[in-house]
From TrEMBL:
Biological process annotations from GO: mRNA catabolic process
Name of the protein: Ribonuclease R
One Gene Ontology cellular component annotation held by this UniProt entry: cytosol
Gene: rnr
Transmembrane domains' residue ranges: none
InterPro entries: CSD2, NA-bd_OB-fold, RNase_II/R, RNase_II/R_CS, RNase_II/RNase_R, RNase_R, RNR_Ribonuclease, S1_domain
E.C. number(s) listed in UniProt: 3.1.13.1
Entry-linked Gene3D superfamilies: Nucleic acid-binding proteins
């Protein structure tokens, strides 16, 4: 009996032993299918004890099986069943289904079969993953589909190259990249139907160092209207075309009844929307009036009404999945890539004047000191009295423009804001008044001007009302112990504070690291500087010392605003985080409305269980989308600025140094922006020290010093609209080179690495040498 039991226990081990001798096709298939690690030729040969000529025969057999469609080859020369997925393979994340990431194999060569959509099971090992990421994953079949378990996050592949086709004097074609960080052009091996000057997408072919480009998509004229935005959209992989199902659902959702009898009716109030003159959508409106309650003498009542997007975009719907995938709207000078289809973002969810609209209303009671005494939320129906540009609202208040709403709407709003401003001053949030560039285009998409946006009281008024509503939303949800998608801004880290201290020391400004750091700490620094020339550069350096804000369900406070609890509530048309806060409020305060009769629209508009369970994951994802949008918007502005300045190449302009490195310094044109490099090689033959702490280059013989914030005149040597790059020279240098689109490829190459006329004094080694 004991012997029989031993035999039963030993059986599984023997089952893995393969018969000696050359395997049949079926035996090879069985081994590959059952093998836990990836099975390559070496593993198959070892399993069947093959040697010498048998290995050569195995190679031929495997090739035959691949030709017959029985096998496919994956990464590391591992074989797998044709039509299947390797057990360990490289995947690219291509989509989001609800909160589940969807990936496809990076290499898929099964002829006639579409690449499988594989669900990614995240375990926190790879950090936050998002669309475009590459992962090494273990895969398994599950039911009728596949699952992927990430093992490692891989570097993003530079598969697609975005650039402009250039023809050299010798007739050869090159791809000039649109990313100014890429300094190397790529020879084009296959141009397809593209022609010289086209903006194209291409894929690299060959092996380093002989990489060439094969053009796959023609995007058109890089200087045509909207092309600069298209460059950013393609470069950053921003979803910009809505699937047909999403568009259809938006049309259906836009027809939902408002349920006027079940909403709080606020149509009698002279509520107004105050927005930028070029705003494409209007998702917030405000109203205020003196509080008639004797217990709140000198206080005000206010309403911040926000488009009720959660009523139309419901958890689990196609609209919801697409909105989460986008995370936010992206705003370019010439177009908007909206988070929601136009049927909603520009129509039913846009608070148009004189039209009934569904709104989520935040009712505030503010005392005479500007403190919010109480708040409540309701689903309401509103009719905006007017949509005003900031400039027009300000002109009416200043008495420069007549407006029928001045007495009933604007004056009470300003009077209530005076109270909110009192509370803001007491809180003393971070006050960095840095200029913001605005690109003005004509009706054909051509640049009219690039100017700094004027900062008006009207801007600050709306900002303070929105902050008050955001704080109320966070506190309301906390009171109900409901989930909150917080807007988090943490205290600056020590490393950045040390760097700031060293920087300020170059201006003889002391900054103690041992103190408790508050926003007021930085405000006091700015006051010390006063209106000196260094004010803007010091504010810029303070901004760089701050951490990046993000979304998370864990509350870490908002350092910059000096607030303990803060959530985004006021822009659900353009931010997914706000939509989640609206849903949470609907559930916490029982604001659900009757279910739609159309069964294609989900019943509930409150936060779903899936929303709740995936708050952390979604917070990471939409924070990444926000950073992507900011980078794309900034790069596009830089391209427009370069295009505007391209007509001024050769001219001397007033500039300010924005950054210093060992290879040169960066400068920006005063009032316009756009960073350009002044290479240290153009500063003369003398040696320069790089003072890392002081952010400066200093000539050894002359003592000439170039430091961050310094104002000087420079000649604009080159302005490249394709990649947004500028290049400057000192005015006494030789004449600038020609047009960036006709570069002389015969001129000497600029060698990478530290220039020969630079000595570094920022490190401990440099300081030792100096002593």
């Amino acid at each position: 009996m004991a012997s029989t039991q031993k035999q039963k226990k030993a059986a599984p081990a023997r089952a893995k032993v393969r018969p000696a001798g050359f395997p049949t096709r079926q035996q090879v298939m069985d081994f590959i299918t059952e093998s836990e690690p990836p099975a390559g030729k070496r593993e198959i040969a070892k399993a069947f004890g093959l040697k010498g000529q048998e290995k050569i025969a195995l190679k031929a057999l495997l090739k035959d099986m691949a030709d017959e469609g029985l096998l496919d080859i994956g990464p590391a020369r591992a074989f797998h069943k044709m039509g299947g997925v390797p057990k360990v393979t490289v995947l690219r994340i291509v989509d989001v289904d609800d909160t589940t990431l969807i990936a496809t194999p990076e290499r898929w060569e099964a002829e006639g079969q579409p690449a499988p959509r594989i669900r990614v099971v995240e375990r926190g090992k790879c950090g936050a993953l998002t669309i475009g990421d590459r992962i090494l994953a273990r895969t398994e079949e599950a039911g009728k589909g596949w699952l992927a378990h990430p093992m490692k996050k891989l570097a993003k592949a530079t598969e697609m190259l975005l650039g402009v086709v250039e023809e050299m004097a010798d007739g050869k074609l090159w791809l000039r990249p649109v990313d100014k960080r890429i300094r190397k052009d790529t020879p084009i091996s296959d141009i397809g139907t593209a022609k010289k000057g086209d903006l194209v997408l291409a894929e690299p072919t060959g092996r380093p160092p002989r990489i060439s480009a094969r053009v796959t998509d023609i995007l058109g004229d890089p200087f045509a209207p909207r092309s600069f935005s298209l460059i950013a959209i393609h470069k950053h992989g921003i979803p910009h075309v809505f699937p047909e199902a999403v568009e259809e659902e938006a049309v259906t959702a836009s027809k939902l009844p408002l349920h006027e009898d079940k909403r709080e009716d606020l149509r009698h109030l002279p509520i107004v929307a105050i927005d930028p003159v070029d705003a494409r959508d209007h998702d917030d409106a405000v109203w205020a009036a003196p509080d008639e309650d004797p217990a709140n003498e000198g206080g005000y009542k206010a309403i911040v009404a926000i488009a009720d997007v959660s009523y139309y975009v419901r958890p689990g719907s196609a609209l919801d999945r697409e909105a989460r995938k986008r995370g936010n709207s992206v705003y370019f000078p010439d177009l908007v890539v909206p988070m929601l289809p136009h049927q909603l973002s520009s129509d039913m969810c846009s608070l148009r004047a004189g039209q009934d609209r569904a709104a989520m209303a935040c009712h505030l009671v503010i005392d005479a000191q500007g403190k919010v005494k109480s708040f409540r939320f309701s689903r309401a129906i509103i009719r905006v009295a007017a949509v005003l540009a900031y400039e027009n609202a300000q002109a009416a208040i200043d008495g420069e423009q007549d407006n029928a709403l001045l007495e009933p709407a604007l004056k009470p709003l300003w009077a209530c804001w005076a109270l909110l401003r009192k509370a803001r001053e007491k809180r003393d949030p971070l006050a960095l008044d840095l200029p913001e560039r605005r690109v003005v285009l004509d009706e054909w998409g051509k640049i009219v001007s690039v100017a700094v946006r004027e900062r008006l009281d009207a801007h600050m008024l709306i900002e303070d009302y929105m902050i008050a509503a955001n704080v109320a939303a966070a506190k309301a949800l906390e009171a109900k112990k409901a989930p909150v998608m917080y807007r988090v801004h943490e205290t600056p880290g020590r490393d950045k504070l040390v760097a700031l201290k060293e920087y300020l020391a170059t201006f003889d400004i002391d900054f103690a690291l041992g103190q408790v750091i508050r926003p007021s700490t930085f405000n006091q620094l700015i006051k010390k500087v006063g209106e000196s020339e260094e004010k803007e550069q010091i504010m810029t350096q303070i901004l760089r010392s701050q951490t990046q804000a993000y979304y998370a369900p864990q509350n870490m406070g908002h350092f910059g605003l000096a607030l303990g609890s803060y959530a985004h509530f006021t822009s659900p048309i353009r931010r997914y985080a706000d939509l989640l806060v609206h849903r949470a409020l609907v559930g916490a305060y029982d604001l659900e409305l009757p279910a739609p009769k159309d069964k294609a629209i989900p019943d509930r508009s409150s936060l779903s269980q899936e929303d709740y369970e995936n708050m952390g994951r979604v917070g990471e994802m939409i924070s990444g989308h926000e950073r992507r949008a900011m980078e794309a918007e900034r790069e596009t502005i830089d391209r427009y600025v370069a295009a505007f300045l391209s007509a001024h190449v050769g001219e001397v302009v007033k500039a300010r140094i924005t950054g210093v490195q060992n290879f040169g310094f960066f400068a920006t044109v005063e009032g316009l922006g756009g960073d350009g490099l002044v290479p240290v090689s153009t500063l003369g033959a003398e040696h320069f020290f790089f003072d890392e702490a002081g952010k400066a280059l200093q000539g050894v013989e002359s003592g000439d010093r170039y430091t961050v914030g310094q104002r000087l005149e420079l000649r604009l040597a080159e302005a490249d609209p394709i990649n947004g790059a500028l290049r400057f020279e000192l005015p006494d240098n030789p004449s600038p080179r020609g047009s960036p689109l006709k570069r002389d490829r015969t001129r000497p190459k600029i060698h990478r690495g530290r220039p020969t006329n630079i000595r570094h004094i920022g490190s401990s080694r440099g300081k030792h040498k100096k002593r």
